[in-house]
Design a protein that fits this description.
Blueprint lengths: L1 H17 L2 E6 L4 H6 L2 E3 L1 H9 L5 E5 L2 H10 L4 E3 L8 H4 L3 H10 L3 E6 L4 H5 L3 E3 L4 H6 L6 E5 L2 H11 L4 E2 L12 H10 L4 E4 L5 H4 L4 E2 L2 H10 L4 E5 L4 H8 L4 E4 L17 H10 L8 H17 L1
Parallel strand pairs: 1-2, 1-3, 3-4, 5-6, 5-7, 7-8, 9-10, 9-11, 11-12
This protein binds iron/sulfur cluster.
Iron/sulfur cluster binds next to helix 5.
Length: 308
């Protein structure tokens, strides 16, 4: 396995150079996938990199909404997504037609959508956000401005609590983070009482309430790296363990996945070295977006990038 991975990595490296292709990978992808990426990051950092690069082609090692965001921001580039079926339960929970109806019901509301949405939903959105910048994005509106927040009700509730706003929340959730139970965090805490608990705000409010720090994947990595503490319980998708252990060597990390309550994201794990190699070789599957939808979606993503 190690040997075949090594060969594949070499072949990918060669094709990447030949085609001037930039490989972007999310922190939740497999370790070997993150190792061959030119850049790994959370949704915000990946969107920023997709908007600003010199490559001729982008291969997105992640899920579909991320590759769509890259195509929206770099329309003249070929954007490859190795597995078109790599979806996202959160993005799938918000349909464009349903959102259109909600907007008609609340015409005086602005729409803030998490980037974990389809390109069609982004096209109906005023400003996108990620878990890294959601507070800044929501804070960029006047206090009186009414807001619909899609699609993550847990993240939206977290922002409502922090800001004292009363945004209307879409009832969506990420099946990975929403599955984390209070009991599983408490059990790990009992085993490691000195460990700081770092939680992604896509988790339920009662789980976030147990956190010493609640924030985006990148926020969690930075907190662990810069904190004086030596031990951490990591309450998010376990793919982040690769980057966190790299960034904070010598510290001790306990992934919530050990308790079985937080499963891996099966969509993120669909991307493998094999399908990356095939995608690079054949230059497909290619992400295509209707131009009118793309332009409308671009506006909401660029609004976000202007804020942060
Ligand atoms: S971890 Fe959750 S939000 Fe992230 S891609 Fe998977 S299903 Fe979507």
């Amino acid at each position: 396995m190690e040997e075949s991975n090594k060969n594949l990595k070499l072949k990918i490296e060669q094709l990447k150079k030949e085609k001037n292709c930039l490989i972007l990978a999310h922190y939740y992808t497999r370790k070997e996938v993150q190792q061959i990426a030119d850049f790994t990051g959370d949704s915000l950092a990946l969107a920023q990199r997709a908007a600003d690069n010199e490559a001729d082609m982008i291969l997105f090692a992640g899920v579909r909404f991320m590759a769509e965001t890259a195509k929206v921001l770099s329309p003249d580039k070929k954007v490859l997504l190795p597995v078109m079926e790599a979806s996202c339960s959160l993005a799938d929970s918000c349909g464009a037609e349903e959102l259109k109806r909600m907007k008609e019901q609340y015409p005086d509301h602005k729409v803030v959508s998490y980037v974990n949405t389809s390109v069609e939903v982004k096209a109906l959105t005023d400003v996108c956000c990620t878990s890294s910048n959601a507070l800044d994005v929501v804070g960029s509106f006047d206090k009186e401005q009414k807001i619909i927040f899609t699609p993550d009700a847990n993240l939206g509730g977290f922002i409502n609590n922090l800001t004292g706003r009363n945004m209307k929340l879409w009832k969506g959730a990420c099946h990975v983070h929403d599955a984390v139970s209070v009991k599983s965090v408490e059990e790990l805490k009992a085993e490691h009482p000195a460990a700081k608990v770092l939680v992604h705000p896509e988790c339920r409010a009662e789980v976030v309430a147990l956190a010493d720090y609640a924030g985006s994947t990148k926020g969690i990595i930075d907190y662990a790296k810069n904190s004086d503490s030596e031990e951490f319980i990591i309450v998010t998708e376990p793919g982040v363990m690769y980057e966190i252990e790299r960034e904070a060597p010598g510290k001790r990390f306990y992934s919530i996945s050990r308790s079985n309550s937080c499963v891996e994201c099966e969509y993120m794990k669909m991307v493998t070295l094999e399908n990356i190699y095939e995608a690079l070789l054949h230059e497909e599957p290619v992400v295509e977006i209707d131009e009118q939808v793309r332009c409308a979606a671009e506006k909401s993503i660029r609004e976000m990038l202007k804020i942060k």
